[in-house]
Amino acid sequence: MKDLESLSAFQAAKKLAKREIKATDLLLACLDQIGQRENIVKAWASLGKENALARAKALDKGAIKGLLHGLPIGIKDLFDTHDLPTSYGSPIYANYYPRTDAVSVALIRQAGGIILGKTVTTEFASFKSSSTTNPHHSEHTPGGSSSGSAAAVADFMAPLATGSQTAGSIIRPASFCGIVGYKPSFGKISVAGVKSLAPTLDTIGIFGRCIEDVALGVAVMSGDHELANVVDLHNKPRVAVLKTPGWQYASPDTRGAIALARFSAETFAKGKVSDIDLPAELHQLTQIQTRIMLSEMSRSLAFERMQYSKKLSNLVASQIDQGAAIEYKQYKLDLDQAITARKMMQNLFDENVDLIIAPSAIGEAPLAKEGTGDPLFCRSWTLLGLPCINLNVSSGHNGLPIGVQLIAAYGKDQFLLSAARALALALPDPVLRDQA
Amino acid sequence: MKDLESLSAFQAAKKLAKREIKATDLLLACLDQIGQRENIVKAWASLGKENALARAKALDKGAIKGLLHGLPIGIKDLFDTHDLPTSYGSPIYANYYPRTDAVSVALIRQAGGIILGKTVTTEFASFKSSSTTNPHHSEHTPGGSSSGSAAAVADFMAPLATGSQTAGSIIRPASFCGIVGYKPSFGKISVAGVKSLAPTLDTIGIFGRCIEDVALGVAVMSGDHELANVVDLHNKPRVAVLKTPGWQYASPDTRGAIALARFSAETFAKGKVSDIDLPAELHQLTQIQTRIMLSEMSRSLAFERMQYSKKLSNLVASQIDQGAAIEYKQYKLDLDQAITARKMMQNLFDENVDLIIAPSAIGEAPLAKEGTGDPLFCRSWTLLGLPCINLNVSSGHNGLPIGVQLIAAYGKDQFLLSAARALALALPDPVLRDQA
After folding, report:
1. B248: domain CATH number?
2. A191–B contact, CB cutoff 8 A
């Protein structure tokens, strides 16, 4: 029963459904890994060991509950859980037990998932650094805000963990930790019971070590169970590289990863992988996303600003105040631009491309003391509401992982998963091909 | 200080800001009215008398806090309040004190509003009847699901009260109770901290006795403070009557109200008030809205279905099960149709019309024993995400109020408020003109 923790979620789920392995053993393997590594990685805000063990035993005895039967899952501590403390990364909510699970958490339980514990989030999913370290090098950041979820999955502490993205909080940490991160189409998964930061942007997603893992997680949390079955591509897709505005900041490592992804995609693309650019009108999306996020944060955190002002970090307090200073007229203009941008992107997809390859992050994970990294290359895609997947394609000059971001048209999640799998299979490094 | 409770929210807010009346006196007048009528109307799930009085005294002494300074406001018991029990109309949440206010509630407090108490909601905002009665006739329903908010405002217990609409839970009770109900454009107000039923549809709004009242409430809850200033119409708008699919069920009372609204709108419309129809492709919106709502309910209430199955009413439990039985493929098809429908409506507005007049409800408030009334004429507009206002325009054969629904293009909330005011001013009955 050794090394059960290294099974991917999809592999483990299949074995659990066939009763080839026990939920209890898988759970113990994960807990053992946590025991060995948590003092360095610091991925967990809390563990639900007793409840998880009791649940695993019950699942081993009872009928198969659903797609996640017996799978231990980490829940970002921005998601409400009725049986584990939920702090949203803030001392304001220390020892808070919500009355209800977030909708996505309830659906995980309903499908037989075992809530292993809560993973560390930055304070209210902001850019404030958390204590979690990058499993590949403890002086580097795992990224934020889903710091603990990305690190836990990368470090084999859990096969799956939930995340949320408002700027770049799934794709960026997945890139830094060298795993698969999946932000589905905006609205695909209910945000109810996940601490709200910016309703126009907040998107629920998941981390896993393979494409099929993240497909499984989103299938359950959305109710779109067919997603779990990642099918082969029917037709050769039109693939293009899109150097997101800000490309001048991309490190040589990131540029190399894009080149490698392009090269690999040539094997399954329709024709050559082309280069496209965002329409000129959309070059301000990064700034628009930033203003919308700050403006909405100032309302979303109004309660905390009023009642617990002194328990907010300076960073979050100043973001709220910045947001409150943005005129509503500007905010409304930005929202209108976002609507226009979504239409223009839809036209771009209709006419020119099925799959976009874009950078996930500027480069390798920066040193922890420098922050959680810049979400520059994620902001536009979050604002556009498009489904995005980070795939680990190479490593950088420090030996840390470098991912690329794959993007499809709104609602084309099933296709995106298939395309990401095709790209993973085409990677030159056999170890990285295991992501397929 | 008599009759302060009969001041509209806007009038009272002006007098409070000028210190012409005291918040404490207004609050006492409302509490007095509640004392006299609550045993019949049953609008309140809980009252926060002590806290409200302390807050009123503090506001009378302190600086002007914002647009709602000193105004007592009822909060639908679907909204989280940290200092008042929040039951969502369900015994599952009896005596539950959330840790945080809903975002909209926090913004009301920030603007100087006084949380007077929680108003009765039907169980999880469903169609299950509540105990609240119609202030105009206690054997009739006030409508649902915002039963208590509509009844409290109609009965002068509070000048403003919050509501939410997933099918027809603002417009219908406003029509039945003879007040102004305003459901702004979808997404205008954050739903965070309001019990989620169907994220694609859930919309926060407000009840008042005048157009300026509801403008004030939504201005504060959205952050769009300019909305509070309801300006005169700049240009004559193109006005059309749109007999929503299902018109054959409209009672003679409702048909008469539409005729009266048409007649009144002729005074400010550009040319004759025309008749338009929904494009033929959109005649199924009612059915689409119903399926989307049920499908999403089955996920949104998965926690309650799993953990507290026996504390759910048969009606809600069966709705969840109905929703769970809808194939995701069908749901996805319905979502796609909704997106197409929103585009087609935008074209209709661009080309033909600025203001739509449509029925709010089938007729007068039915008898309470018959349920909370049919949301038939609201479902399509909720699905389309358009801003809607109910205006009271006449009374029916039992002497109960009959409203009409005014609808504008997405995001045209400011215009809708101005147009609703123009229509109110043009009504033949001078008492109803007071809604302007």
Report:
1. 3.90.1300.10
2. yes
Domain holding A185, by residue range, is 4-228
Q: How many domains does chain B have?
A: 2
Q: Are residues B279 and B223 in the same domain?
A: no
- Cα angle B273, B279, B283 (rounded to 5 degrees) comes to 110
Same domain membership, residue A172 and residue A249? no
Distance from CA of A344 to the nearest CA of B (A): 14
Residues A259 and A224 in one domain: no
Cβ–Cβ of B107/A190 closer than 8 Å?
no
- The residue out of A206, A228, A250 marking a domain boundary is A228
B315 found inside a domain: no
The answer to whether residue A302 sits within a structural domain is: no
Residues in chain A within 8 Å Cβ distance of B411: 332, 336
Q: Let me know whether B177 and B250 are in one domain.
A: no
Position B264 in a domain: yes
Q: Tell me whether residues A106 and B303 touch, CB distance under 8 A.
A: yes
B213 touches chain A (CB under 8 A): no
Cβ contact (<8 Å) for B300 and A328?
no
Of A180, A195, A228, the residue at which a domain comes to its end is A228
Contacts of A93 in chain B (CB under 8 A): 99
pTM of this prediction exceeds 0.95? yes
- B316 in a domain, yes or no? no
**Per-residue tokens: B289:** 């809205």
Residues B91, A418: Cα–Cα separation, whole Å: 45
Regarding whether A260 and A152 lie in a shared domain, the answer is no
- Same domain, yes or no: A182 and A142: yes
Query: Could you tell me how many CB contacts below 8 A there are between chain A and chain B?
Result: 90
Q: B70 and B154, same structural domain?
A: yes
Told to judge if B145 belongs to the known catalytic residues of this protein, a careful annotator would answer yes
Active-site residue list of A: 76, 145, 169
Question: Are residues A262 and A335 both part of a single domain?
Answer: yes
Question: Which residues of chain A are within 8 Å of residue B304 when distances are taken between CB atoms?
Answer: 100
pLDDT truncated to tens, each residue of chain B (436 aa)?
Answer: 459 999 999 999 999 999 999 999 999 999 999 999 999 999 999 999 999 999 999 999 999 999 999 999 999 999 999 999 999 999 999 999 999 999 999 999 999 999 999 999 999 999 889 999 999 999 999 999 999 999 999 999 999 999 999 999 999 999 999 999 999 999 999 999 999 999 999 999 999 999 999 999 999 999 999 999 999 998 999 999 999 999 999 999 999 999 999 999 999 999 999 999 999 889 999 999 999 999 999 999 999 999 999 999 999 999 999 999 999 999 999 999 999 999 999 999 999 999 999 999 999 999 999 999 999 999 999 999 999 999 999 999 999 999 999 999 999 999 999 999 999 999 999 999 999 9
